[in-house]
Specification:
calcium; disordered N terminus; Immunoglobulin-like; mainly beta; 46 strands; four-stranded mixed sheet; calcium ion binding
Length: 766
């Protein structure tokens, strides 16, 4: 029984030591306040010692609770704030006088009961929202709301009744620090003030503000200021307020309108790119927006596109300007139909404008206009040598001012050679003096003059016309023979040659080409003389006086001339060396043939004798002729390894030493040919080069005859000496026609010492 009693004691819970939760109201002002008395069932002689621990006792916040250690009474020593601590969990202890634990620690929970001591607080003092004007309203209930932050056709009130919702603008929500499980934190919203018209409503439970009725017009009221209230205790407790500002966004619900139906303007004729005037419009929509900006169009009255209209971005008015100049004499009045509309399309619900069209009347003012040369420049042609006083042309201008009686006068503005005279009232241009070639005032055969036409208006206006006169060339000069006398050198029994030329003072096409022939009045000349064309010049042969006729085309003007060629023996004292070419200095003229032949001088030189020789030599070289001239390609052998002062600083070799060694070297025995026996005869003296194309055949035949008549050498496939090149040379022999055809025995290592330009050859042969 005793053991069972002990076991029963362990199972039984001691009701006196189990402490239920204790509730105490926040803000309790009667301090100290008895909360509870705890008591242990194990009474000991001398009594029990009680104590408590936990937040509010020996932990922060300290000193809120205390206990009488002998009686076990727990007291509240300070006011509580539920928003800071809504409950306290303590531990209670029971000890004997010796400090031995009599009971296991038990929990002591103190709950702070909420009081409505906190007002609601809006999340911000000022709420801002926007809604387009003309937004659709909601139902009649002022409790329309938003579900999930989106506009819903139905929203639930706190009682669960669905109502229709309008266009929602914003949510003005608030918070309450009181216990959310009590009415102290249950909030209700309302609009205290929004002006004379109640255009908006607020959801009482969510604070969402929506449109309440139609008629939102930005042009009437653009901004709404609402005073919103939030109250706890379901609207019967503490309250707070905030401001909600709603801006109406503009839509294009107002078309632009002209301020009046007709506008009148003036513009001067011939004005382009200038502004004529403005047409004024009015638009109620937001200034500066696309709903306000106007766009103008010219519908009628301007088929030629002479006018243009644009929008002034600052005033929104239409600016009429000139795209093309107008002519008062053609049309002096215009009546334009102009329309206006917005850049953005008009809303379908917007009313139509009664003033979308306007009439613009433009009057063109007449002004003085400058004369006009219809043909500018005027080009005419005049033969050279035209006598003074000859009419050239009548160059006149016209006055565009047909409705004004004006007189035009003319004057020469630019006549550099003073060749012209002008009739001031008729504009007739005449020659003042003879017009001749050549002249420094001609540009490619054209003479340029400027005429001035002036009217008699106030102030007067003028125009400038250009007169281009082509001076046509006339074949009025006969060619002249050059030279009138010359020297013909030749061997006995063999004729010589003389290069002839002619000059003509006329310009093309009455100048070159010049044709030469023996005078048909002296047919006996053909027995001893002949004329052949040589590079544009003429060559004559045989020592006689030769009357020549040279003439031009366009038309042909013959010019008979007497040529006085003088025959001299072909020896150095009288004639130049055969290698020096045709003589250029004329000999003293012989007595003329007693035939008076008239000659006429011409301006332009067709060909000089020296120039003819140079051109003849160049053409002969290109055509492969074997003619030799006194200017040899080898005349200047220059040292180019010197870094001196140009060609004038070079030391040249005289090629005449190679051509005529007998004049510069002592007489010596000519060298022997390699391919002939030692007993063979020496080659003959050097032969003279041909002095003209006619001697080439003889030159070749003589060389062939010398080769065929030499019995000391084989006649086939051998090297023949056709001329003597002198004895000895400061340069080594490059190669020989009888030398080896291979280069196996040659040493080309020296090429590597010749510099970078010969590097490639050194790599190939070195």
């Amino acid at each position: 029984p005793q053991a069972w009693g002990q076991h029963e004691g362990l199972r039984r819970v001691k009701r006196a030591w189990v402490i239920p939760p204790i509730s105490v109201s926040e803000n309790h002002k009667r301090i100290p306040h008895l909360l509870v008395q705890i008591k242990s069932d194990k009474q000991q002689p001398g009594g029990v010692i009680y104590s408590i621990k936990g937040p509010g006792v020996d932990e922060e916040p300290l000193g809120i609770f205390s206990i009488d250690k002998f009686s076990g009474k727990v007291f509240l020593n300070a006011m509580l704030d539920r928003e800071e601590n809504d409950r306290f969990r303590l531990k209670a202890f029971a000890l004997d006088l010796g400090g031995v634990t009599l009971e296991d620690p038990t929990d002591l929970e103190i709950i702070v009961v909420d009081q409505n001591d906190n007002r609601p607080l809006f999340r911000q003092d000022v709420f801002t929202g926007r809604v387009v004007e003309g937004a659709e309203p909601g139902g009649s209930s002022r409790r329309a709301g938003v579900v999930g932050g989106q506009t819903s056709p139905y929203a639930h009130t706190h009682r669960g009744a669905p109502v229709a919702a309008g266009t929602c603008v914003m949510t003005a929500d608030a918070t309450d620090a009181d216990d959310p499980d009590t009415d102290n934190a249950v909030l209700r919203y309302s609009i205290l003030e929004q002006g004379t018209t109640s255009m908006f409503t607020i959801n009482a439970t969510t604070g969402e503000i929506c449109t309440a009725r139609p008629g939102l017009d930005r042009e009437t009221v653009g901004i709404y200021n609402l005073t919103v209230q939030a109250a706890d205790m379901s609207g019967d407790g503490l309250t707070t307020t905030a401001t909600a500002i709603i801006y109406l966004e503009d839509i294009n619900d107002n078309p632009p309108e002209f301020t009046k139906e007709e506008f009148s303007m003036e513009v001067e004729e011939q004005a382009a790119g200038v502004d004529v005037g403005k047409v004024f419009v009015h638009d109620k929509d937001l200034a500066g927006s696309p709903n306000w900006l106007a766009k103008f169009t010219i519908l009628e009255g301007d088929p030629e596109g002479a006018f243009a209209i644009r929008t002034d971005p600052h005033t929104n008015d239409g600016v009429l300007s000139m795209a093309k100049p107008l002519d008062h004499e053609v049309r002096d009045r215009f009546e334009l139909t102009v329309s206006v509309q917005n850049e953005r399309p008009l809303e379908p619900t917007a009313p139509a404008s009664p003033r979308a069209l306007a009439t613009v009347r433009v009057r063109v003012r007449d002004v003085n206009e400058a004369p006009i040369f219809r043909e500018n420049p005027r080009r005419v042609s005049v033969l050279e040598g035209t006598p003074p006083g000859t009419p050239i042309t009548t160059y006149t201008a016209s006055d565009p001012d047909t409705r004004q009686l004006q007189t035009l006068t003319y004057a020469l503005l630019y006549d550099p050679a003073d060749w012209l005279q002008l009739e001031p009232h008729t504009g007739t241009v005449r020659t003042k003096r003879e017009l001749l070639h050549p002249s420094a005032f001609l540009q490619g055969g054209w003479y340029i003059a400027l005429l001035l036409a002036r009217d008699d208006a106030e102030p007067p206006l003028s125009a400038t016309g250009t007169l281009s006169i082509e001076i046509l060339e006339v074949n009025d000069h006969a060619p002249r023979l050059q030279p009138p006398a010359g020297v013909v050198c030749g061997r006995p029994g063999r004729g010589g040659t003389l290069l002839l030329g002619a000059t003509d003072d006329d310009r093309p096409p009455h100048g070159a080409p010049i044709h030469f022939q023996l005078s048909p009045q002296h047919p006996q000349l053909a027995r001893n003389w002949s004329i052949t064309r040589f590079n544009g010049e003429a060559t004559s042969s045989d020592p006689y006086q030769a009357p020549l006729t040279h003439f031009l085309h366009h038309p042909i003007i013959p010019s008979p001339s007497i040529l006085h060629p003088k025959s001299l023996p072909a020896s150095p004292p009288h004639c130049p060396s055969p290698t020096t070419g045709i003589p250029t200095q004329p000999a003293p003229p012989s007595p003329p043939v007693p035939h008076p032949v008239p000659t006429v001088p011409l301006p332009a030189v067709l060909a000089g004798l020296g120039a003819a020789r140079v051109r003849g030599r160049r053409r002969a070289l290109r055509q492969g002729l074997l003619q030799r001239s006194r200017d040899d390609m080898r005349d200047n052998i220059l040292n180019y390894d010197e870094q001196g002062g140009g060609e004038e600083d070079q030391d040249a070799y005289d090629i005449n030493q190679l051509r005529h060694p007998e004049f510069f070297l002592p007489r010596a025995k000519p060298p022997m040919r390699r391919d002939t026996p030692l007993s063979s005869a020496t080659p003959p003296a050097p032969r003279q080069l041909p002095s003209g194309p006619s001697d080439i055949e003889d030159f070749i035949n003589e060389g062939l005859e010398a080769a065929d008549g030499d019995p000391s050498v084989p006649p086939y496939d051998t090297a023949l000496i056709y001329d003597y090149e002198g004895s000895g040379s400061i340069t080594s022999t490059l190669s020989s026609i009888v030398s080896s055809l291979t280069d196996e025995d040659q040493d080309y290592d020296y090429l590597s010492e010749w510099g970078p330009r010969f590097q490639r050859l050194a790599e190939l042969y070195g």
